[in-house]
């Protein structure tokens, strides 16, 4: 029986050793990095103006948010604050709530968050605000009453206009075009398509929109619908796809077909999906917002809130470094600006 | 060989009882987990800034409540040697049902009772498929995991219902006045007491262990094996639905994809708490400590600025180590029992 007791003790000892190693490793790992949020509150006597700003994206390891955090970090380094990025491995609201709670305990200056659910993280954000933390949402908003400011990447009018402008430039402002959309009841796409139609009638009378088809944001369906469009409209000069799935599938079809270089394709896409087709000449130019600028602006907005330069009210003005001046609009929202155009000249500057 | 395998378990039982009671209680897997929990708590309080605050306790308990609740019936299901992978989906389905009923103007208690009834029915379906059709619980509940999630997402699509009465969403997050302990812990304490009595102090509970050791032996000893297993699945479904109500109210958001992947967190915590995946072994105090250990570690590491993937690696390593230590302990005990029972065994 003696050896049995030893076993028990040995297990307890091993467990204890493990726990000590784990926790001490972790706290060691956390402390030296100046960007760690844990080290921020410790420096309570930090000089005024040293704002700690923590980015909380939908999830980590997502190239889109890696890019926005890169912009945020650059901004924080410019104005001399402390940058940190935390987030769950998977994009779920409950995991985000745990992180918001942690940041509340740490009393960071501001949380810059892309919400996984517009309501689920609301109470947690409001608890943070009650504790004096400023809350900026970007990319994906919460209900307006749960944050101080929303940094909007693009508005519907701007998205519609840039796509009409691009297709008009690429087909010489006249001829037949078609739209390859997401699903028939996709709210965003339908709103953009309506605005695009208005813009076409108003400024481009020689361009005719002959068809709108729906690829349901599925790769294969979008691919097949592109083939169908080209067969049923032999005079088609251009396709606009206001969805990242659609434009990538259409580009894949065009790149190996006889229409490559003859039928223009543009719309909303991401550089990583479209790089190949821009390089092989299938696509000249497409648009989206620039996540790096989005993160940069969000960080400056957070800084202005923490320093008390703005309160987030409509009409407030602040300067965001290289992006110049911004004015807070309705619903405590700041608009990044016109969508960003990606083409052969700049696509290699982006990785998302 | 046959005599050896037949006699080997018997002396172990006697050996167990030859030890003083205090030693039987102290040197167990459960106590190892509880000690580990205590050590982590002390170390985290001393080294992690802002960890030793009442706010940490409140947030921590709110975070682990879903796991704690579902772990209670899961412990019993797993002690019988079964498993229920559909609990995460049931949380989502319950969330959607509560959301739809509240949207239709029903009160939270009515919506909650309906959700729990649906949970119990879902568990009954699992239980009947496992016992009547003689199918492995793993296969059945993988199926119902997809089925219940499918229904949940199908009912609500990609939208979310967020119009819950403020007094209810505030109530589930409120603390017991004067303490940092959320009121929802009272619900958990009541359920814990009920499950502890059921598992550790009733013939039904003895039957649960007996089934896990050997279904045939349990049957010959008068345990109603199938009925016991069905009851446990029903409890598992009902408690998962209850946890779904809590989840919905805590986040104020009913979505079809709520609590995706929760089943694996629950099973991980239960195994960490000393329950054998092969059945027959485990206890509730170990499981509660296992859930709390995962919660405390995550909370402390988050506060220390450790990233989520590293937190996952650490809890994963902990889990593997706990499984290894459990089987090493079993192997050591079996080896020790053998020479005492039959000397020739030592030579081989």
Mean pLDDT of chain A: 86
Q: Which secondary-structure class do the elements of chain A indicate? A: alpha/beta
CATH architectural designation of the largest domain in chain A: 3-Layer(aba) Sandwich
What name does CATH use for the topology of chain B?
Answer: ABC transporter involved in vitamin B12 uptake, BtuC
N to C succession of SSEs of chain B: HHHHHHHHHHHHHHHHH
Structural class of chain B: mainly alpha
CATH superfamily of the largest domain in chain A: Response regulator
Cα-atom radius of gyration of chain A: 25 Å
- Assembly annotation: heterodimer
Q: How many β-strand runs of chain B?
A: 0
In short:
About 9% of the residues of chain A have low confidence. In chain A, 45% of the residues lie in helices and 18% in strands. By secondary structure, chain B is mainly alpha-helical.
Description:
The complex is a heterodimer of chains A (352) and B (348). Chain A has 352 residues and is an alpha/beta fold. Chain A folds into two domains: 47-153 and 291-337, Response regulator (Rossmann fold, 3-Layer(aba) Sandwich); 156-288, Response regulator (Rossmann fold, 3-Layer(aba) Sandwich), CATH 3.40.50.2300. Chain A has helices at 2-30, 39-42, 63-79, 93-106, 122-130, 156-171, 187-203, 219-232, 244-255, 271-279, 291-306; strands at 52-56, 82-85, 110-113, 134-138, 149-152, 175-181, 207-214, 236-241, 264-267, 285-288, 317-319, 325-327, 333-335, 340-343. In chain A, the strands form four sheets. Chain A has a six-stranded parallel sheet with strand order 2-1-3-4-5-13, with helices on both faces. In chain A, strands 7-6-8-9 form a four-stranded parallel sheet, sandwiched between helices. Chain B has 348 residues and is mainly α. Chain B has one domain: Orthogonal Bundle (ABC transporter involved in vitamin B12 uptake, BtuC), CATH 1.10.3470. Chain B is 77% helix and 0% strand. Chain B contains 17 helices and no strands. Chain B has helices at residues 2-7, 9-18, 21-26, 29-47, 54-79, 87-103, 108-132, 137-156, 166-173, 184-200, 203-213, 215-220, 225-251, 262-272, 284-303, 308-341, 344-347. The longest helix of chain B has 34 residues, at 308-341. Chain B is globular. Mean pLDDT of chain B is 89; it is low at 1-14 and 341-348. At the A-B interface, helix 1, helix 2 and helix 4 of A face helix 4, helix 5, helix 15 and helix 16 of B.
């Amino acid at each position: 029986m003696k050896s049995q007791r030893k076993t028990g003790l040995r297990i307890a000892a091993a467990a204890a050793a493990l726990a000590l190693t784990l926790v001490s490793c972790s706290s060691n790992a956390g402390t030296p990095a100046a960007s760690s949020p844990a080290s921020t509150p410790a420096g309570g006597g930090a000089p005024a103006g040293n704002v700690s700003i923590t980015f909380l994206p939908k999830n980590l390891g997502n190239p889109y948010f890696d890019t926005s955090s890169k912009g945020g970090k650059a901004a924080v380094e410019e104005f001399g604050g402390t940058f940190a990025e935390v987030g769950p491995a998977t994009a779920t609201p409950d995991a985000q709530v745990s992180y918001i709670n942690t940041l509340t305990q740490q009393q960071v200056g501001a949380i810059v968050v892309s919400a996984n659910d517009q309501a689920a993280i609301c109470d947690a954000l409001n608890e943070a605000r009650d504790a004096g933390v400023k809350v900026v949402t970007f990319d994906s908003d919460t209900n307006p009453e749960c944050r101080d400011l929303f940094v909007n990447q693009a508005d519907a009018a701007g998205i519609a206009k840039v796509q009409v402008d691009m297709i008009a430039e690429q087909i010489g402002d006249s001829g037949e075009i078609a739209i390859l959309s997401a699903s028939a009841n996709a709210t965003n796409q339908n709103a953009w398509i309506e605005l695009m139609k208005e813009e076409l009638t108003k400024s481009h009378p020689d361009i005719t929109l002959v068809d709108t088809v729906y690829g349901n944001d599925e790769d294969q369906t979008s691919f097949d619908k592109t083939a169908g469009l080209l067969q049923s409209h032999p005079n088609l000069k251009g396709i606009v796809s206001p969805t990242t799935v659609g434009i990538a599938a259409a580009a894949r079809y065009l790149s190996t077909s006889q229409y490559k270089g003859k039928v223009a394709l543009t719309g909303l896409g991401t550089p990583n999906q479209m790089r190949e087709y821009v390089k092989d000449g299938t696509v000249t130019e497409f648009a989206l917002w620039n996540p790096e600028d989005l993160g940069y602006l969000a960080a400056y907005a957070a800084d202005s809130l923490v320093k008390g330069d703005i309160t987030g009210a409509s009409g407030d003005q602040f300067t965001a470094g290289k992006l110049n001046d911004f004015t807070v609009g309705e619903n405590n929202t700041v608009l990044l600006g016109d969508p960003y155009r990606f083409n052969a000249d700049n696509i290699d500057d982006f990785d998302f | 060989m046959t005599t050896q395998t037949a006699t080997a378990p018997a002396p172990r039982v006697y050996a167990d009882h030859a030890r003083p009671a205090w030693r039987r209680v102290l040197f167990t897997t459960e106590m190892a987990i509880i000690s580990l929990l205590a050590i982590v708590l002390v170390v985290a309080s001393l080294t992690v800034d802002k960890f030793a605050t009442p706010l940490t306790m409140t947030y921590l308990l709110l975070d682990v409540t879903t796991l704690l609740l579902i772990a209670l019936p899961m412990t019993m299901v797993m002690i019988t040697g079964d498993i229920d992978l559909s609990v995460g989906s049931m949380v989502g389905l319950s969330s959607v049902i509560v959301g739809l009923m509240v949207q239709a103007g029903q009160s939270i208690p009515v919506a909650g009772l309906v959700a729990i009834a649906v949970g119990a029915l879902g568990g009954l379906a699992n239980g009947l498929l496992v016992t009547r059709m003689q199918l492995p619980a793993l296969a059945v509940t993988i199926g119902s995991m997809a089925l219940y999630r499918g229904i949940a997402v199908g009912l609500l699509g990609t939208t979310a219902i967020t119009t819950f009465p403020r007094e209810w969403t505030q109530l589930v997050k409120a603390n017991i006045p004067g303490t940092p302990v959320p009121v929802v812990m009272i619900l958990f304490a009541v359920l814990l007491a009920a499950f502890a009595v059921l598992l550790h102090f009733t013939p039904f509970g003895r039957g649960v262990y007996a089934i896990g050791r050997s279904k045939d032996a349990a049957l010959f000893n008068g345990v109603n094996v199938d009925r016991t297993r069905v009851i446990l699945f029903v409890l598992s479904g009902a408690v998962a639905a209850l946890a779904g109500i809590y989840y919905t109210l805590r986040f104020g958001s009913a979505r079809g994809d709520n609590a995706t992947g929760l089943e694996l967190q629950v099973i991980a915590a239960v195994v960490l708490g000393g329950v054998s995946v092969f059945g027959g072994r485990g206890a509730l105090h170990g499981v509660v400590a296992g859930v709390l250990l995962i919660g405390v570690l995550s909370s402390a590491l988050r506060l220390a600025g450790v990233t989520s993937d590293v937190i996952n690696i650490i809890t994963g390593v902990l889990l593997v180590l706990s499984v290894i230590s459990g089987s090493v302990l079993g192997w050591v005990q079996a080896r020790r029992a053998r020479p005492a029972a039959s000397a020739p065994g030592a030579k081989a």
